């Protein structure tokens, strides 16, 4: 077995050497590298070390190496190696960015954080906190469209002609889209580091009755080739626009606010920041947005929307094929967020959207692939992959969320894209034939089919996409022959150890020879039979328990750190689920590891990537090696603050020494710290 030092040297060598590391940090389970040249990574050799549990690319230069609970030991071993400087600063002859004559860091043509990366990260983190409201509103829209389909009400009739109950339901979804600029102003400002409430107040000013009332004294003029309303304000022409549901004006206003605040803080004494920075920010930014940034933002949105509309009018068939073929590559990189903004823009300007329909072909091709994986996993008795596929399929078909499927399956296996893309293409062809349009912004799931026109054409398109990918997986599998044969050999060995009959799975003819060779391979390590008594563990916090497969992170979703469950917290306190000792607790407060007296080693990881908050929003109540009793307070966290920063608070609770147990099972649903979360079944003592 390799020592910690050997593994550290192995990692350095296979990520391109010490000179390739521009910075290094770690969280509860992962080494987080920023690399000058990611192409130097030898990923296959890197993952050959058994201590490396997995790897994840993050952005253009980010790279995560998953090490589990002992990550701090590997981090310390790595930074002791010659030439490794975790801070990325230039020290003597050590590797790092040099300091130029102007005092700025020189990166040899490579920025430590690329502008392209940051732009897409900015869009992603701006929209992610709002998605909850958008998803809820999209389902309310679906209910109203269903009512329209069955003749109970007219979805598009004037509000004054709607029954009172339906007016209320329309208000439920319109609240999200009408005030969308305020939400975007807040989240975008927060992401940039400006005050989110000032960022929300700027677009809010353009939605007030006072601002909209200016139209009563306005005159008609020509603006950007069309008719517009103009009013004179202190001798300056102000073009009036409807800013409800707009995306680009609040984004531009947030960027402007960032620079204004930054400048004001340099001029105004720090003791007066709280009063005069927001005062002057509002005084400057509201007129600047009304006169310049707002109309310019609407022009950008209309320009992009009109361009895509022109392409759609020229050949909706081609666009309907291109969109679903692009999405499988855009979503993993986070590059799909601009298209989401255009969807909202289309609905605001055109009254319909032509992207969401074809996008449904990608989603349902992905869900069809996952359904195929589920069927194959059931036939193979592959419990781990069955759980991942079940969670991904449920999230997709009912919620229209593709991330669990994408990170849990698609990006993990070599042969998924050849099964996925034909489904995207076939579904896109059908979408193009019917020229599908969306009547509202919805997440493409089974529940939102009525939001598309024509609905039957859309239903046929998603069905084609789903079943093409589904049957490709059934006929040709979703793994390379090597991946498939290795997994089947492990399952066969486990069933033999349990005294069960081996599973016969039909193998595609093209792969018959490798399968026969695998059948003769040595059996994997046997799993002992279960002991009679199971260990019951309570939930460490209050919330909704879900399968690990629902965690939008490939390492947790794939149970690479251990089996367990995840909790979507409604409370803000993490408690010890049983008596034991603190193995490790992060200074940032986002994770704690416990060694319980019953033999279970548990990792509780509050949120995803929350280590980046550097402890802000977390309070730690324990320290390493401290004894704790069941119910002791371990960590408290500021739920609203962390979510306002754009972080997902879903909390994996995993048994890191899973291999020592026969099975680990959990039950989904609402939990409190007094409710059972996990049942851990030990192996028989005679075979441990």
Question: Radius of gyration, Cα only, in angstroms?
Answer: 28 Å
Biggest β-sheet: count, sense, barrel?
Answer: 8 strands, antiparallel
> How many domain modules?
5
Indicate the overall shape. Answer: globular
User: Do you know the CATH topology of the largest domain?
Assistant: Glucose Permease (Domain IIA)
What is the SS-derived class? alpha+beta
Q: Quick check: average pLDDT? A: 80
Describe the fold and architecture.
By secondary structure, the chain is α+β, with helices and mostly antiparallel strands. It folds into five domains: 4-113, Glucose permease domain IIB (Gyrase A, domain 2, 2-Layer Sandwich), CATH 3.30.1360.60; 179-314, no CATH class; 316-336 and 350-476, no CATH class; 481-519; 535-687, Distorted Sandwich (Glucose Permease (Domain IIA)). Helices cover 46% and strands 17% of the residues. It is built from 22 helices and 25 strands. The strands form seven sheets. Strands 20-16-17-18-22-14-13-24 form an eight-stranded antiparallel sheet. The longest helix has 42 residues, at 273-314. The two termini are 20 Å apart.
Write the layout of secondary structure elements.
Elements lengths: L3 H11 L6 E6 L3 E6 L7 H4 L7 E5 L3 E5 L4 H9 L18 E2 L5 E2 L8 H13 L3 H19 L14 H15 L1 H13 L3 H10 L3 H4 L6 E5 L2 E8 L2 E5 L7 H20 L5 H42 L1 H18 L3 H13 L6 H25 L2 H17 L3 H8 L5 H19 L2 E2 L13 E2 L1 H22 L4 H17 L14 H8 L15 E4 L4 E5 L6 H4 L6 E6 L3 E3 L4 E6 L5 E6 L4 E5 L12 E3 L6 E2 L4 E5 L1 H6 L6 E5 L5 E6 L2 E3 L4 E7 L6
Antiparallel strand pairs: 1-2, 2-4, 3-4, 5-6, 7-8, 8-9, 10-11, 12-25, 13-14, 13-24, 14-22, 15-21, 16-17, 16-20, 17-18, 18-22, 19-21, 23-25
């Amino acid at each position: 077995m390799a020592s910690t030092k050997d593994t550290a040297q192995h990692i350095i060598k296979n990520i391109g050497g010490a000179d390739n590391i521009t910075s290094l940090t770690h969280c509860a389970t992962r080494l987080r590298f920023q690399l000058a040249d990611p192409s130097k990574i030898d990923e296959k050799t890197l993952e050959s070390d058994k201590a490396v549990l997995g790897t994840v690319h993050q952005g253009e230069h980010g790279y995560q190496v998953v090490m589990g609970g002992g990550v701090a030991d590997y981090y310390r071993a790595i930074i002791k190696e010659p030439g490794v400087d975790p801070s990325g600063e230039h020290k003597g002859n050590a590797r790092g960015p040099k300091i130029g004559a102007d005092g700025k860091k020189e990166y040899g043509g490579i920025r430590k954080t690329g502008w392209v990366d940051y732009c897409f990260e900015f869009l992603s983190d701006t929209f992610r906190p709002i998605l909850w409201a958008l998803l809820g509103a999209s389902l309310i829209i679906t209910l109203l469209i269903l009512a329209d389909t069955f003749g109970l009400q007219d979805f598009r009739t004037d509000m004054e002609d709607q029954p009172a109950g339906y007016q209320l339901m329309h208000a439920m979804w319109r609240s999200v889209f009408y005030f969308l600029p305020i939400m975007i102003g807040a989240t975008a400002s927060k992401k940039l580091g400006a005050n989110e409430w000032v960022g929300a107040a700027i677009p809010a000013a353009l939605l007030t009755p006072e601002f909209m009332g200016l139209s009563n004294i306005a005159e008609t003029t020509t603006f950007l080739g069309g008719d517009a309303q103009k009013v004179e304000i202190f001798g300056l022409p102000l073009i009036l626009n409807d800013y409800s549901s707009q995306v680009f004006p609040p984004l531009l206003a947030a960027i402007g606010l960032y620079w204004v605040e930054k400048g004001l803080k340099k001029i105004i004494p720090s003791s007066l920041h709280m009063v005069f920075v927001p005062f002057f920010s509002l005084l400057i930014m509201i007129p600047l947005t009304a006169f310049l940034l707002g109309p310019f933002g609407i022009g950008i949105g209309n320009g992009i929307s009109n361009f895509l509309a022109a392409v759609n009018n020229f050949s909706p068939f081609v666009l309907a094929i291109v969109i679903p073929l692009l999405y499988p590559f855009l979503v993993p990189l986070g590059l799909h967020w601009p298209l989401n903004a255009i969807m909202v823009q289309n609905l605001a300007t055109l009254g319909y959207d032509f992207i969401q329909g074809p996008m449904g072909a990608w989603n349902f091709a992905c869900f069809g692939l996952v359904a195929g994986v589920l069927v194959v996993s059931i036939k193979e008795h592959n419990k781990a992959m069955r759980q991942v596929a079940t969670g991904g399929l449920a999230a997709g078909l009912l919620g229209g969320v593709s991330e669990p499927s994408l990170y849990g399956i698609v990006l993990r296996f070599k042969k998924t894209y050849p099964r996925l893309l034909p489904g995207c293409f076939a579904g896109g062809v059908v979408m193009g034939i019917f020229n599908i349009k969306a009547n509202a912004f919805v997440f493409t799931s089974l529940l939102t089919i009525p939001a598309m026109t024509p609905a039957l054409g859309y239903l046929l398109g998603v069905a084609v996409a789903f079943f093409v990918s589904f049957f490709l997986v059934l006929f040709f599998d979703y793994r390379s022959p090597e991946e498939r044969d290795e997994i089947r050999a492990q399952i066969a060995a486990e069933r033999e150890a349990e005294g069960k009959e081996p599973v016969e799975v039909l193998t595609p003819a093209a792969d018959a020879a490798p399968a026969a060779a695998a059948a003769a391979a040595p059996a994997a390590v046997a799993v002992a039979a279960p002991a009679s008594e199971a260990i019951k563990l309570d939930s460490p916090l209050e919330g909704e328990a879900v399968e690990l497969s629902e965690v939008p992170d490939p390492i947790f979703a794939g149970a690479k750190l251990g089996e367990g469950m995840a909790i979507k917290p409604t409370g803000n306190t993490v408690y010890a689920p049983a008596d034991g000792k603190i193995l490790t607790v992060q200074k940032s407060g986002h994770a704690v590891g416990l060694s319980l007296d019953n033999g279970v080693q548990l990792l509780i990881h509050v949120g995803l990537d929350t280590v980046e908050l550097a402890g802000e929003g977390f309070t730690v109540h324990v320290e390493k090696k401290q004894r704790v009793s069941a119910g002791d307070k371990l960590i408290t966290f500021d739920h609203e603050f962390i979510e306002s920063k754009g972080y997902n608070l879903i909390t994996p609770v995993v048994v890191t020494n899973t291999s020592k147990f026969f099975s680990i099972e959990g039950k989904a649903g609402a939990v409190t710290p007094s409710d059972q979360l996990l049942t851990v079944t030990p192996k028989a003592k005679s075979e441990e």
